[in-house]
Write a structure and sequence with these properties.
nucleus, 2 domains, 19% strand, disordered N terminus, nucleotide-binding, eight-stranded parallel sheet, Rossmann fold, 18 strands, alpha/beta
Length: 470
């Protein structure tokens, strides 16, 4: 790929630099945030959006454009490919949805835009955002994700929606098997959480999808953490893209997010977790775990101690997963205990606290986890439990964040008062999981698998989706 010219762009003045970068990895033009606060656009109308979309933003309570929206929307309206990098909770969905909807109003057609997302829950959320912002023009969307009936999805495709929101695997299924379904006339492609979509897991699927899409289209890549690898951008078939970044580094978090760690012995993690839940009783909390087993165990443990917890993990049916999210959003449950299926992109209003019971496997996932709180200008808190087995992983996370995080102060004696009650609840959780194992013919699907947990022991566990319905 040839080196490209770089230029700095602001809304006040456009200045071209005639220098050609010597770095072969320079595959995009850089956009710097507007420097002059007095001349920077302050409203959605100032960004060039039509009155109908401005009214939709007002109706949804969008008072003013966020930083990523300020920088990316005017450029997208100029028919440019974009690579957008901004903190989680900064309004990236509206940043790509609004320009697409404006272009759709100008030239309406079926299968106008395709949005790819790495998780099913994020796909549904993006579809809801398009429908809300496009309600004034009666935009039609379809969600194509795994775990749902393909026939009903095919019927929805037959109604020729304007916007398709999909996970890569299910989209490819329909492209190969649904008669008459083609994206040859597609005008816009969006990859949300693009770094995840361009990695090795989704790479082969993305490559197949790109082969059947028209090259004459606009392409947007958005994420909170972004890789700038040349081969990744080539796979995405971007055309002279602009890179819009409103983060000081690729692992930036919002200023309203307070982060802490709690260094404790592994055997006391449950006690400290329950103490933290007591300290934040009545608040909305997401607890992240590494395995399905821990998710289920902690859900039973928390319920035994009187907390309104609900589980979310990949072994649940899609309807159960959406049901769990719905209960948490509606605050009929204050605590969501989840694997990393809830780490990326989900916009859940007013999450007060994120607790990392198990540390994330990598720094990117950590950023996405803690981004579930402190969204849209609100404040939030994230606390990570670090045991003797997690020190190396935690040091890598701090290095990626480029700062040392403060330790969350606790009174050890006050915490350990709970040890007897927690111990009893632990035994109850083990008994219930064992009972679920024995009721293989009972309600729900039973899953048997081997788990390598953080205490470095193999555990044979059997889990049922039935508990999530409680």
């Amino acid at each position: 790929m040839p080196a490209l010219k770089k230029r700095k762009i602001s809304h006040e003045k456009l200045v071209e630099k005639d220098e050609v970068s010597d770095d072969a990895s320079s595959s995009s033009e850089d956009v710097s945030p507007s420097q002059n606060e007095n001349t920077a656009p302050k409203t959605f109308k100032d960004l060039g959006l039509i009155p109908q979309l401005c009214e939709a933003c007002d109706a949804l309570g969008y008072k003013a454009p966020t930083a990523i929206q300020l920088e990316s929307i005017p450029l997208a309206l100029q028919n440019r490919d974009l690579i957008g990098l901004a903190e989680t909770g900064s309004g990236k969905t509206a940043a790509f949805a609004l320009p697409i909807l404006q272009a759709l109003m100008d030239k309406p057609q079926p299968f106008f835009g395709l949005v790819l997302a790495p998780t099913r829950e994020l796909a549904y959320q993006i579809s809801e955002a398009f429908e809300a912002l496009g309600s004034v023009i009666s935009v039609r969307t379809v969600v194509l994700v795994g775990g749902m009936d393909m026939v009903s999805q095919s019927i929805a495709i037959g109604k020729r929606p304007h916007i398709i929101v999909a996970t890569p695997g299910r989209l490819l299924d329909h492209l190969e098997n649904t008669k008459g379904f083609s994206l040859r006339t597609l005008k816009y492609l969006v990859m949300d959480e693009a770094d995840r979509l361009l990695d090795m897991d989704f790479g082969p699927l993305i490559t197949k999808i790109l082969k059947v899409l028209p090259r004459e289209r606009r392409t947007f890549l958005f994420s909170a953490t972004m890789s700038s690898k040349v081969e990744g951008l080539q796979r995405a078939s971007l055309s002279n893209p602009l890179r819009v970044s409103v983060s000081s580094n690729k692992y930036q978090t919002v200023a309203t997010l307070l982060q802490y760690y709690l260094f404790i012995p592994h055997k006391h993690k449950d006690v400290h977790l329950i103490w933290l839940l007591n300290e934040h009783v009545g608040q909305s909390v997401i607890i992240f775990t590494r395995t399905v087993h821990e998710t289920m165990r902690l859900t039973i443990l928390s319920r035994a101690l009187g907390f309104g917890a609900i589980a979310l993990h990949g072994q649940l049916s899609q309807s159960a997963r959406l049901g769990a999210l719905g209960k948490f959003r509606a605050r009929s449950r204050d605590i969501l205990i989840s694997t990393d299926v809830a780490a990326r992109g989900l916009d859940i209003p007013s999450v007060d606290l994120v607790l990392n019971y198990d540390l994330a496997a990598d720094s990117k996932t950590h950023i996405h986890r803690i981004g579930r709180t402190a969204r849209a200008g609100k404040s939030g808190k994230a606390i990570s439990l670090v045991s003797q087995y997690d020190v190396e992983v935690w040091l890598r996370i701090e290095k990626a964040l480029d700062r040392k995080l403060p330790e969350y102060k606790v009174e050890k004696e006050e915490v350990m008062i709970l040890s007897e009650r927690v111990g009893e609840a632990q035994r109850q959780a083990i008994a219930e999981l064992k009972e679920l194992d024995e009721k293989k013919n009972g309600r729900g699907s039973v899953f048997i698998f081997m788990i390598f947990n953080s205490s470095r022991h193999y555990v044979l566990s059997t889990l049922s989706a039935a508990i999530v319905a409680l």
